[in-house]
Amino acid sequence: MNADPSYEPEASVTALMSGQAVPHAAAPASRGSPEGQFLSGAGKPETRQLGDLQHRGAAAAAAVIGSGAAVERAETSDRERKDNHRGGDHTWMLRGLIPVVVLAETITAYVAMEALVSSQTLATGLSLLAALIGAGLACGFANRRLNRLTVPAAARALEVIFVGVLTALRVDSLSVQGADLLTAAGGAALTAMVSMLGLLGIEEIVVETRTFGMLLSALWVSWQRWRLAAAKARLARIRARTEAVADKLQMQFLKFLLKADEPVLEQAKQRAAALRAALTDHRS
Questions:
Q1: Residues 6 or more apart from 145 whose CB is under 8 A from it?
Q2: From CA 119, how far away is CA 250, in angstroms rounded?
Q3: Do 202 and 136 contact (CB within 8 A), yes or no?
Q4: I want to staple 149 with a disulfide (CB 3.0 to 4.6 A). Which of 31, 102, 144, 164 is the partner?
Q5: Nearest to residue 152, comparing CAs of 141, 165, 136, 168?
């Protein structure tokens, strides 16, 4: 290795990587620079691997940036939905209880419909229709409350009349089936309580829970965050692998210098570090 004090490893390697001619003091013309010999010989596989890893690292870094922007957009949209939401903050999953309440109302309404029609199929259809009407009333009242509007007294009276008519029909149906008046009245009162609590429950669930759109928005935010975490993990793996390959390349070049020219150890280390820096800086 040339021991000229004017020799600069960084300048020599940078010139080599940029395709410029290397000064004579750094690389004798008779045999070329050690960097060129190493990169075209023993260090060629690691150099190619390093270039491939840095290309993949650049793509992974771009994916992290894109995923970060997607997370920011998703979170902004989610915050806007929450800010514009007029109801409560309970989970949307509570709305899964509404079909259960409708089913219970259908069963209790069936008792009333048996007094009106003799066909079991028709009674089932009418009871389901009555249950859906009750649920519709409850959802309508909930919508007015969400819009900061007062539910009219007439509408509440209509709900009470709806439950009252079903109760009267239940009393008659139970009487037809052979129950005495006290038993029929007690059974009808019990089903009336079930109906009223069910309708009030539907109304409160609609008012106090998030919307389906908010559920989808929350799931979308979680998905985007997962993608960002996966992209960051992939980038970290690629960078760790790149550092390992660069360290290996630097060590191999140091051994190459020590075997080829028998230089001073500190100068060989500087030159190996310069090659490593030039390769990583050039390819990044």
A1: 151, 203, 207
A2: 90
A3: no
A4: 144
A5: 141
The answer to whether 123 and 113 are in contact (CB under 8 A) is yes
- Domain boundary assignment for the chain: 9-20+32-70+223-283, 88-210
Distance between the two ends of the chain, CA-based, in angstroms? 29
> What does each C-alpha distance from 261 to 21, 34, 61, 254 come to in angstroms?
21, 9, 40, 11
Neighbouring CB atoms inside 10 A of 111's CB total: 20
Q: Report in angstroms the alpha-carbon separations of 245 from 53, 206, 241.
A: 9, 59, 6
Give whole-number Cα distances, 60 to 66, 192, 267, in Å.
10, 63, 36
Residue 150, φ and ψ in degrees, nearest 5: -80, 135
**What are the residue ranges of helices labelled H in 118-180?**
120-146, 153-176
pLDDT in tens, 224-271: 999 999 999 999 999 888 888 888 877 777 777 777 665 667 677 777
Global confidence as pTM: 0.64
Return the bridge partners of 209, or none: 90
* Residue given tokens 């259809």 in the structure block: 125
- Contacts (Cβ under 8 Å, ≥6 apart) of 187: 111, 170, 171, 174, 179
Report residue 170 as tokens: 């239940």
pLDDT tens digit string along 170-206?
Answer: 887 777 777 777 877 887 788 888 888 888 899 999 9
Q: Residue 235, Cβ neighbours under 10 Å: how many?
A: 19
Distance CA 171, CA 182 (A): 9
Helix (H, G, I), strand (E, B) or coil at 95: helix
